[in-house]
């Protein structure tokens, strides 16, 4: 039985993670960490009436008082790194769905994980279909190096481009040389019209109510185009990936950035 703490249970992803822990027979939720309601029980809230676990506002105290194997952190970029560092200090393996980590953050956290010989996973996207989209795009880039990325999310998302779009661009960049796309003399009549530039690739971010998580990778070639697209229609789509990450993090002694590294 794997003992889980969920950080951010009142968010939409956090709610689904709590339900995952209730549904899966090999997982048990021992506590949650929230920004408020310290000392209350999660069952005090109508949507969690059957989930009787304590709520903590201090992660350090939570880990000191509870026996925890894995932290599932679905909070915000401002807290993700701090929570991982606290988890390592207590021998807890973090699975983090928060994006916005810098390259230096990843390097620092990898060093901590290896010092403690603890597994850790940061996943810009938990949807298995999205991971396959990224891997397919990386393969396509070997043969069609002209590419742009369009990602769409709900209007409450904090970071742009999304972690998935940046991870996709990084994987594609491993297969193509940096190159300027478009006319050599093209001019943006409005700044940002061509999107963010990553080694010559353009990344376009859309933020609208009603969206969940969507990405299309467009490749162009002589007389042809290729579109690789993934849509998450609700947040349940992320839970198989969360379960995969929980199972795999117990076998690791370093940090893995991206679920694509866990899928052959």
From TrEMBL:
Give the residues annotated as active site: 153, 157
Per the UniProt record, which EC number(s) apply here? Answer: 1.17.1.8
Pathway the protein acts in: Amino-acid biosynthesis; L-lysine biosynthesis via DAP pathway; (S)-tetrahydrodipicolinate from L-aspartate: step 4/4
- Residues annotated as binding NAD(+): 8-13, 97-99, 123-126
Q: Which residues bind NADP(+)?
A: 36
Positions with a binding annotation for (S)-2,3,4,5-tetrahydrodipicolinate = 154, 163-164
Q: Write the record's keywords in alphabetical order, separated by commas.
A: Amino-acid biosynthesis, Cytoplasm, Diaminopimelate biosynthesis, Lysine biosynthesis, NAD, NADP, Oxidoreductase
Organism's domain of life?
Bacteria
Question: What are the subcellular locations of this protein?
Answer: Cytoplasm
Database matches in Pfam families:
DapB_C, DapB_N
Q: Which HAMAP family match?
A: DapB (MF_00102)
Task: Tell me the protein family, please.
Answer: Belongs to the DapB family.
Q: Partners and quaternary state?
A: Homotetramer.
Q: Can you say what this protein is called?
A: 4-hydroxy-tetrahydrodipicolinate reductase
Organism encoding this protein: Shouchella xiaoxiensis
């Amino acid at each position: 039985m794997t003992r889980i703490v969920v950080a951010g249970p009142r968010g939409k992803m956090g709610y689904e993670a709590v339900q995952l822990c209730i549904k899966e027979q090999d997982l048990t939720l021992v506590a949650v960490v929230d920004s408020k309601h310290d000392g209350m029980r999660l069952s005090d809230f109508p949507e969690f009436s059957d989930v009787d676990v304590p709520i903590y506002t201090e992660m350090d105290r939570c880990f000191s008082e509870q026996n925890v194997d894995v932290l599932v952190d679905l909070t915000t970029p401002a807290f993700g790194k701090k929570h991982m560092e606290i988890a390592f200090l207590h021998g807890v393996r973090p699975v983090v769905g928060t994006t916005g980590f810098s390259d230096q953050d990843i390097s620092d956290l990898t060093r901590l994980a290896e010092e403690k010989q603890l597994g850790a996973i940061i996943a810009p996207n938990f949807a298995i279909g999205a991971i396959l989209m990224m891997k397919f795009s990386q393969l396509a880039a070997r043969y069609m190096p002209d590419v742009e990325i369009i990602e769409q999310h709900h209007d409450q998302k904090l970071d742009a481009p999304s972690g998935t779009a940046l991870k996709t661009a990084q994987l594609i960049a491993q297969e193509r040389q940096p190159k300027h796309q478009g006319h050599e003399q093209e001019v943006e009549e409005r700044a940002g019209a061509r999107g963010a530039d990553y080694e010559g690739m353009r990344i376009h971010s859309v933020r609208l109510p009603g969206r969940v998580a969507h990405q299309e990778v467009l490749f162009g070639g002589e007389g042809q185009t290729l579109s690789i697209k993934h849509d998450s229609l609700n947040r349940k789509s992320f839970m198989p990936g969360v379960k995969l990450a929980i199972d795999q993090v117990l076998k690791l002694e370093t940090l893995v950035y991206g679920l694509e590294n866990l899928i052959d």
